[in-house]
Every structure is written in structure tokens, then in C-alpha cells.
């Protein structure tokens, strides 16, 4: 078919063809592959009502997959005992920020949404949550709520979220392996050097048994399990504003040195170098690892026949701390059912929900006054975990995700250079972390 | 031109029957009606492309010139900073280099293998249909699902591959398939080749079957060897199909994302970050849609240029 359009016809057809092809490629990838008006919500801090409204309203709620069991248990119990009904949507953890961002842009947020507590400052500063200061303060146990979550959700002196699920980093140790290694199963490590000795003693058993394990290609795992050792020594990891890193301190370097020693001497279970966080909690339950930091939310998921003990994460020379992670939850700024949404939040923090739902599932309660309850009393490990909340930290930084959770961010580079490298780049890498925080 | 077209379609030997009362269409009216019909046929596609490609493209263009945080919407003009910031990122040039390297490796390996497979199963002989199906089957799987499957296979802690190699005594320690930049790249290439070789084989098979049998017979009668026949007949006549495969493969590889996002997350140590991963990172990790859109526009420009060049090559091949 000859051209009749002259010399320009060729080019025009070529460009048109290319655009059409790109259009197709945009739809099918082949071989390689607002300032939010606080419209509704609980504005003005919400009516000073500690219980909210239960009138049969239909509410929507989002949570991330990482805390699905806890959210589902709470929602199920609430729906069974209230007229209001919550429809829970679980979103893949990695897609959560994108989903919230897109929904915020189109004013399509649900009535309630939980968030990884480290991302909360981003959402509060962007106006995605309703101000619930008055409602929170009206709770009779307001001062007993996990303050690290409350602080993370406080922006310009206003409160926007309450604790939803708490996930603490703690040491799990295999008592059976401790006995085999001639260690006292009732004496977990109280310092990083003891942890080192005990891990090496267990590792010496051989036959596929390893001393410890960690997620060496997972920035989130690093902050969750390494930072408590720095806090335990009384040091900080970030400045108060969250714009500068202090991850090259002497204490921090001692922590990295210990982990590097484990890597160099093959004390760590195979796969640590590649572990992106997807399967890092699946190694300990196999019963072949001596002692390692784990999320407290996995305690209830451990095999029944695994004899394990729980201990706080220690610092180089003693002390104890934990990363108070998990999810905080708030009412979206655009919700038209703020009173009903608050009814769920207030109920979820009450004695009955905290004890009969949260504690019953071996999870950490969100209130310090309930740390000892009928379920934890039956399992001293839960008391150990619950009591750690007051020693714990939740770091505050607006740029937390892009700096520490991003698999291509500067913190993971620091981590890997410090532990799999020779540790000579820590100071330089710390500057890169600070640059990202103040970006 | 209109008149010519009308003339072609105008009746020349029939006079209208006398009882006919409806006026006969003039050539111009008929042309207008054909034009309207053509437009009606094209309209659904035009609407689809406008809504799902052109409008989003315009929005991306606007974003690329704006300060547009994911959580707060447009905050005014931010040009050309979005473009310069994107290029200034420490990951930008390594990502460009890696994407190009990946594209070259995947394209060469895939096309060679697909051609070999197509040649293997082109003749109708016992078992040919079975093997065509077997080679094509992986293409029916979604890329994300295939990536997850291989991630499971490669995992040193939960995957079977490492254990099998240890069991066979081929290695002493668990194998880290994704642990170094080279092994991560090659492991990903293996996945892509496994998944797409059958798809490209099918395209080339159609091309092979379009070559007239008489041409081969004439060549054999002239005493041409198999190699000569392949070089002088098969390859030249297969050029349009090969060009199509090349176009699809290069475009797809330059847009690689899913497999790296699932298998390596850009690691180890940022050595397998692709350009599209950078776009995703800017948008959903750094929450900066402006810079992400600027990167997208850059990628679009490069793809447009490449496709124009490839189309031109394809046309030349057709004309020759």
C-alpha cells in the first residue's frame, strides 16, 4: 500500500504506529515485564464522648496484611456485639501506602484505617486523619494507652490516632537447644555479649543447628531488631525531629560488630544475607535456631511443641528495650460516620476487647494497666512482653519509609555494609541516612 | 481523490428501474456515509485509547511539571526540578545501565531460543503438537505468579532447588541464587526465558509457516545445503516476525518491573534496580509523584524513539 501522503506521511505513520504500540504496551506489559479537607471526620477534636454511637451504621475499615489476624479478631468481636457493622478490607502490606495515597487523592478513604505506626506522622501531617483529641482525652484510661503510639500520632499538639495492634521486638530462645548446649534455659541473655556467647554455644551443636538469624536484606527488620540494642544502652538513633540519624555512634558500632562477627563465623542460619523480610519469622519455628529477635505477634503462632522462652532485647553491656511497632488507627478526615467509628475505637481499647480478644490471642495489650491479666498470668512470657511497652520506643520521622523501609534506601545500604562488609563505611552511610531524613 | 473513489464505486452499466421512487445516492453522499461508518467502527477504540492512554498521559505530563506529593495533591509548578532531581538520584544511571544490560541479555537469549524451538516443532511429526503446547504453557501464567513461583524455588531457606543440589552432592552449602548481582540477574533472566520463550516461539512458528514450501523445494533442487537454506531463505523471509518479536521484547524488557520487584526488590545492594522500579520508588516510597512522572515521561520518550527506529527498520525490511 503505497503512501499518498508525501514524504511526511512516512514519519506521521511511523509516529502514529509507535504511539499506538506504546498505548498497547501501557495496557499489556510483555516480556519484561491534596490537601485534604477535614470535611467530616471528627473535626474539632470530636465531641467529648468516650463511647461514640452504636446505631447500626455500616462502617468501612482498612488494615494491612501484616496485622490481619489482630484486626480480624477485633472486628469480628465488635460486629458480634454491636449494632454497627464494620466491613474490613485487608490490603497487601507492600501496597498499603500506595492504596492510602490514591484513596486520599480521590477523597475515597474508608471510615477507619490502620497504619504501620512509623508511617502515621506522614498521614497526620497530610491531614488524612480526623482530630480526635477530645475523644481520646475523655477515655478514663487515656493515660494508660501505649504512649509511643499516641506520640507518633500527635501532630501540632492534636491527637489523631490510638493504638490498634502492638508488635514488639523481643528475643525468642529455644530452651531445648539451650539444654543441649549445656546452657541454663531459664537464663536468657541480659547483654549483647551474653547473647553472643549463648548463640555461639548453640551453634557449636552442629547438625543443622544455628546460633541465631536475622533479616540481612530487610531494612524494616533492621530497625525493629537492632535499634533496641542501641536504646538499651541509653543512646538514641535519631534526633528528636527525626531529621538526623545517630546511627554511627560507638554503641551502634558495637551492635554492628556483634552481628558482623556472627556472619563472619557462620553463626547465622543460611539465607540471612538474602532475607528480604518475607520469611524471616519462619526460621525460628523450625526449631533449629538458638536465640534471635522476633516480633511479639508471632508468639501465638509458634508450634505447640516448641519449648521457647522470651526475653527483652539487651544492649551491648546490659539494659533492655524494644521497638514498639504495630499499627495505630484513626478515623479518616472524610468519614461521615465519625461518632460510629469512634464507638469501635473506644470499644477496642476497653477492658473486654483488650483482655478477651487481644490478650486471649497472646498479643500485646494497648494499655499498661492491663499488662497483667488472666491470660498473661497463665503465661509469664506475655507479662515480659507487655511490661516492655514502657521501656520501648517508636521512632518519629516524616521520611521514615523512604529512609528505613525502602529496600533501595540508605539505611539498608548502611546495614549491609556494616555487617556483610568491613564496617568502614558506617560514618559515610550515616550521612546518607541523615540526608534522606531531611530530604 | 474523493471523486476517484466515488467513481470506482459508482454503477456504470445499470440504469435505475422505472418504478424506483427513492432518489439514488450521489457519490459524495455515499462517501460521507462510508466515512461515518468508518468513524463508527473506530469510535470505541478511539474512546478507549483517549480515556485510558491519552488523558492519563496528559495528567502524567502535568504531574511531571508539578510539585505533587502522593498524599497532598498538586502544589504548583516544579519544573525543571522534577527532571533534574530524577537524573541526579544516585540510583538513576546505575538503573539505566542495568536495564539496558538486562534488555540486551534477555532479547538475545529469548530470540535465539524461541527461533530454535520454532524450528524444532515446525514440522508436523509425532509429538510436535505436544511439545508446542509444553513450550507455550508457561506463557499462560501471569508474570507476578511466575515470579513468586521462582522466588519460592530460589529461596535458600524454604526452596527445594538448593536442597536438591546439596542432596546431589553438587554443592556443600545452601545456594544463594539471588545473593550476588550476577546470580540475581541470571536467575531473573532464566525466569523470563522460561516464561516467554514459548510465546515468541509461537509468533515465529506462524512466520515459518507463511514461507511457501515451493521456495524450499526449489532451493533443494538447486543443491542448497540446510545451512544455506536457513541463511538465504528462512531468515530473510522470517524477518518481519523476528522484527515483531524484537520490538515486543525490547519494549517489555525496558519496562521490566514485576520480576525484579518480587524476586530481588532491586537487591542485593541496589544492583538490580530497573528504571520502572525507580519510578515506583519515587511514587510510593518517597511519595513524590512529580519526580516519578518526570521519570515516566523520560522512559516514554526513549521508548517512542526506539519504536520509531524499529518501525522504520521493519518497513525497510518489508520494502526490500
Can you walk me through this structure?
The complex is a heterodimer of chains A (439) and B (320). Chain A is α+β, with helices and mostly antiparallel strands and 439 residues long. Chain A folds into two domains: 58-167 and 325-393, 3-Layer(aba) Sandwich (D-Maltodextrin-Binding Protein, domain 2), CATH 3.40.190.10; 169-322 and 399-438, 3-Layer(aba) Sandwich (D-Maltodextrin-Binding Protein, domain 2), CATH 3.40.190.10. In chain A, 39% of the residues lie in helices and 14% in strands. Chain A is built from 17 helices and eleven strands. Chain A has helices at 6-27, 68-81, 96-105, 120-125, 133-138, 147-152, 175-180, 192-203, 219-232, 250-264, 338-349, 351-358, 374-377, 380-388, 400-405, 410-419, 426-437; strands at 58-64, 85-91, 112-116, 154-155, 158-159, 162-174, 291-295, 308-311, 313-315, 318-321, 324-331. In chain A, strands 1, 2, 3, 6, 7, 8 and 11 form a seven-stranded mixed beta sheet that branches. In chain A, strands 4-5 form a two-stranded antiparallel ribbon. Chain A has a two-stranded antiparallel ribbon with strand order 9-10. In chain A, strand 4 and strand 5 (158-159) form a beta hairpin. In chain A, helix 9 crosses helix 10 and helix 16 (410-419) runs antiparallel to helix 17 (426-437). Chain A is globular and about 60 Å long. Mean pLDDT of chain A is 89; it is low at 1-8 and 19-40. With 320 residues, chain B is mainly α. Chain B is flat and about 70 Å long. Chain B has a domain at 92-272: MetI-like fold (Orthogonal Bundle). Chain B has helices spanning 2-9, 27-64, 81-88, 92-121, 128-136, 143-154, 160-167, 181-209, 213-221, 226-254, 258-263, 275-285, 289-319. In chain B, helix 6 packs across helix 8 and helix 8 packs across helix 10. Chain B has 13 helices and no strands. The interface between A and B is large, with 55 and 64 residues. Chain A: InterPro entries: SBP (IPR006059). Chain A: Keywords: Signal, Transport.
